[in-house]
Model the fold of this input.
Amino acid sequence: MTRTHVAFLVLLAALLAAPFFVYPVLMMKVLCFALFACAFNLLLGFTGLLSFGHAAFLGTGAYTTGYAMTHLPVTPEVALILGTLAAAALGVVFGGLAIRRQGIYFAMITLALAQMVYFFCLQAPFTGGEDGLQGVPRGVLFGFLDLRDDMMMYYVVLAVCVAGFFTIYRTINSPFGQVLKAIRENEPRALSLGYDVDRYKLVAFVLSAALAGLAGATKTLVLGFATLTDVHWATSGEVVLMTLVGGVGTVLGPIAGAVIIVVLQNELADKVGSWVTVIMGAIFVATVLAFRRGVVGEIAARLGNK
Amino acid sequence: MELFGIPIQALLGQLLLGLVNGSFYAMLSLGLAVIFGLLNIINFAHGALYMMGAYAAWIGLTYFGVGYWTSLLLVPLIIGAFGMLIERALLQWLYKLDHLYGLLLTFGLALIIEGTYRHFFGVSGQPYPVPEQLSGATNLGFMILPNYRAWVVAASLTLCIATWFVIERTRLGAYLRAGTENPKLVQAFGINVPLMVTLTYGFGAALAAFAGVLAAPVIQVSPLMGSNLIIVVFAVVVVGGMGSILGSIATGLGLGVIEGFTKVFYPEASATVIFVIMALVLLIRPAGLFGREK
Done:
């Protein structure tokens, strides 16, 4: 067993025991954002694409699942799948457009396209406008697991997120993932070796969008609402921050980043009110200037030196 | 008189409003392009600097009785100096890194600035009066022209053209263009490139602040005005490409006008029309209308 595998097992054991010690709803929120950040990191960390519009996929998953649970006669698992598929479909469109440009333009295009989704959610008749979708029921999973119980919901969320993490882990360690890393390191070289770079990028983009959608869909089930915050550019910025703080391009980094940022926001919201945005901005600036490897990246580098 | 079933008065009114918005797009995308050329940084804080400009004018008038014309001159200098401070304190450490870090750092900066203003001024908009000399409207016969709006378009166009002239036709501009192409070589010729970089960022910030002061009487001054605008300006930059200054100006104005007409014919789409055009341009001409593929 490698060191990473040991870390995985310790983490999993901790997560299984967590709801007995920590408020389960907070834990579930952390898990959803951890999955969101990991999906984002698949693009930034392992393909070298900075998407500044990932809130669009989180929000599409959230709204689709919220709409399905309130208006359609479906069970939660179907609603989750619908949310994921909707985000994946949007990923095909946005990815197809955005990969036509590189680097800094890619970031600007994804941001602009995501803003379009924001205005759509603001104006469309079925998204609840400024209020969003409220009072989304959790339902009964597979017809016999009652999710209204927080403990039951927690283990379902854990299962969903672990499945998501496993998908990402398998992807980055597969031959496909190796090609993605080659594209990140040297795109012209990967192209000249005969890889269809655009297709690889698009598949990675859609996979990332789908998993971000799954995270959003799960979040809606947990919290019972989908709002404009889910599609706002600030959320796109938050997921960048989580990944950056945890460690871009590390497997566990985004999870650590999500824990730090979500818990920090949760703690600060009551105490400092509107200063939260300023503190988030300051963390951004400090991380970029002095701490670019992130928490996990820094630890890995220290361990590697010994 | 009517055109496509819309009174021509309303049509021309929206055209003018589109030109006003377009002037702001043009000024901001021009600043972004100039900064990107030399610093290789996409300045996410550009919207925040624009908002700071508008607020500086509002604070000046409300608390110190500083009038519009003084603000128009003074505010760009103050915000420009603030920009140079940002460049010296923060941005200068990023030039050897990937471009993306510049975007991330300036994004963090935008959050800090916007959050601070939100804390002190709330989210509701503050009105700023139109200066006396430009209040009222002129009857042109076929339409009523609000004087202030005409002034905004004229002033920003003049500034944009002046910027183009300085960069494309003067010695200083030649240094700047050379610095964009090959900073090491320019430095070897004895030009102080780091100073030029600082001044360039300061100039971009001043341009954004000037746009902010111009905008103050047209829109409500609010801490959110910057972030709402900057994302649209990013789309404008993607459509135009950052290769050409006149291209940026034309794209900004053109998209403003298209947005204005969309408000007449299909108001629901007016918030998204620029993003849709961006998507279409990406399909047809990925490098942008005036861009060069790098």
